[in-house]
Amino acid sequence: MKATQQLHDLGQSLWLDNITRDLLTSGTLQHYIDELSVTGLTSNPTIFHQAVNGSAAYDAAIRRKLESGKSGEALFFDLALEDIRQAADLFRRVHHRSCGVDGFVSLEVSPLLAHDTRATIAVARELHACAARPNVFIKIPGTPKGLPAIEETIFAGVPVNVTLLFSREQYVAAAGAYLRGIERRIAAGLRPDVASVASLFISRWDAAVAAKVPEGLRNQLGLAIGKRAYKAYVELMASPRWQRAFNEGARAQRLLMASTGTKDPQASDILYVKGLAAPHTVNTMPEGTLKAFADHGRIGQPLAPDGGDCEAVVAEHAKAGIDVDALAARLQDEGAKAFVKSWNQLLAVIESKSAALDTAK
């Protein structure tokens, strides 16, 4: 039995952190579903920038949309929604079989809206309506400015993938925003079964401290942060407040381990997959990591509900001068800025390709 199947059987969903038109049309994603137990997919501005910039697969669609009067951001979202719908259809059977727990595909709102709560809510609702698929998550950053938008979007009944979380505290704040939205739906007599995941970024921790910690601490902090958040997740799900929501028909907001491709070439290429296995969670991974785990992965012990050695590892990093709380805030800010940069690059590619295709008519 492949390691990917074993991980799935343990209770963790394997999602692919990538989307391209070639991936969809070539049958590759279907192969990952059939053979590697992949049950969902995530995207972000960087992924779409790489997809559009690195391929001619979108040229014909861009040309058609130009002819219909679309341009810029509107043209991009038309392209993205075509991919998202096709991927969602591939996962529809998983979504149905799991009674709406799994089989999701994620599309992010424009990162330029990070400080505009009202616009984020409006765009999230519009994108989900345009996707017209029940198994589509709209990604909203779990930044302080994003939390009100998350609560309101959940209250509106739109499934949300909370992204750009880097610490236990950021995760708990995002979970609180989700639950407030659900409790408001219960109070209003609305169905509370609105799905959500909370995406905790892992590998950037170790990349950020690699040059600042002793050799013996390298590539340990990301796992410790994941364990810390998992402990909080287990405690929240067992709390009376969440249990009351579950009794009304609410779903758990599953913890998702994101950014799980190993960045250190000297470390194991399956470090964060093997080390963060846990039931009722998600691991979304790049294609290279997925293939590596299928090829030579093995399942270790599932995460301990009490966080295991996470506090000891964090304490050792503190002794080495790492302020985890300050670094979490910095990583979230840098992540938001990186997505803005990718977004602007993506729109520049759309503009340049549009100009070139228009000239070639």
Report what the structure shows.
By secondary structure, the protein is an alpha/beta fold. The protein has 17 helices and eight strands. Helix 10 links the parallel strand 5 and strand 6 (196-201). The longest helix is centred in the C-terminal third of the chain and has 36 residues, at 324-359.
Q: What's the short story on this structure?
A:
55% of the residues lie in helices and 12% in strands. It contains 17 helices and eight strands. The protein has helices at 3-10, 21-25, 28-35, 45-53, 59-67, 72-90, 92-97, 117-131, 147-155, 168-187, 203-209, 221-237, 240-247, 271-274, 287-296, 310-319, 324-359; strands spanning 12-17, 38-42, 105-108, 136-141, 160-165, 196-201, 254-258, 281-285.
Features:
single chain, about 350 residues, alpha/beta, 8 strands
What portion of residues is helical? 55-70%
The order of strands across the largest sheet is 2-1-8-7-6-5-4-3
Using only C-alpha atoms, the radius of gyration works out to 20 Å
Helix and strand pattern: HEHHEHHHHEHEHEHEHHHEHEHHH
Mean pLDDT across residues: 95
Count up the helices.
Answer: 17
The low-confidence parts are none
Derived from helix and strand composition plus strand pairing, the structural class reads alpha/beta
| Shape, per Cα inertia axes | globular
Task: Note the quaternary state here.
Answer: single chain
Characterize the biggest β-sheet: 8 strands, parallel
What is the CA–CA distance across the termini? 52 Å
Tally of strands:
8
- Estimated share of beta-strand residues: 5-15%
